[in-house]
Amino acid sequence: MRTIALSILISASLLACQSTETSTNDSEEVAVAAGQESVVDDVSEKDVVKVAVGSPDHTTLVTTLKAADLVTSLANAGPFTVFAPTNAAFEKLPAGTVDGLLKSENKDKLADILQHHVMTSALAVDFFQDGQSMGMVDGTNVIFKVTPEGVFVDGAKIIGSVKASNGWVHVVDSVILPK
């Protein structure tokens, strides 16, 4: 009787350990497969990625961010200031440009262009001053122009701004290309 009870206890312990190991491995696989952007939170303020994803005017931007593997980076704590070109802004580029940039062999070039739209600080539109030069994530600078018509970054007009949990999204009417 004692042997049967001991045998049942050992079997139960082994099954519990196997079950725990499986759960841990499943959790690790999920963690590896998805980054910060996959966290579901309908209560908190949206991060810059979720602001873009939620905008019907930024589907091309979201597609390019995914192709360049920048979604996870921009979903992190930041802070970021993102100049987000609209779909119409991407349509101003020469025909075939976006399709060409989306090819895997152009991933680095696409990432450079997109990083030219990001600053590692959270700056509201009223921070920018006429003639101000500021550094972008790609290592190059942009120049701001402030006029009665609005605020421009390297010629792209800021047409709207949204505060995000990890910075600011400034909607722009043109794609800002590095020089």
UniProtKB/TrEMBL annotation:
Record Pfam families: Fasciclin
Coiled coil (UniProt feature): none
Assigned keywords, A-Z: Signal
Ranges for domain FAS1: 45-176
Record PROSITE patterns: FAS1, PROKAR_LIPOPROTEIN
Leader peptide range in chain numbering: 1-16
Gene3D superfamilies: FAS1 domain (2.30.180.10)
Keyword Electron transport included in the entry's annotation: no
The keyword Metal-binding is assigned to this record: no
Protein name (Swiss-Prot/TrEMBL): Fasciclin domain-containing protein
Lineage: Bacteria, Pseudomonadati, Bacteroidota, Cytophagia, Cytophagales
